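Example S7 (C-alpha cells).
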C-alpha cells in the first residue's frame, strides 16, 4: 500500500495532514488527521488497510489540539 492509499483509507476520519512510515514500526503507515479542530494520529496497516488509533508514547490513544 502506498502513502496516498493509506491517506485515502484514513480520510474518512478527518482531513489528512501528514503520512509517514512509523519510525518504530516500519510496517505501519502513521497518518495524522484533523477533525473538529483536533489532530488525531492513526495507524494504517499497509497489508490489510485497517485503520486504528495510534498509541501515544505512554501507550494511550493520542489526540491533541490543532491550533
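Recovered sequence:
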Amino acid at each position: 500500500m502506498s502513502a496516498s492509499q493509506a491517506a485515502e483509507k484514513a480520510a474518512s476520519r478527518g482531513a489528512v495532514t501528514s503520512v509517514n512510515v512509523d519510525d518504530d514500526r516500519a510496517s505501519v503507515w502513521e497518518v495524522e488527521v484533523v477533525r473538529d479542530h483536533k489532530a488525531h494520529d492513526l495507524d494504517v496497516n499497509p497489508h490489510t488497510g485497517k485503520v486504528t488509533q495510534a498509541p501515544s508514547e505512554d501507550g494511550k490513544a493520542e489526540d491533541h489540539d490543532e491550533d
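Notes on this example. Confidence is low (pLDDT under 50) at residues 61-67.
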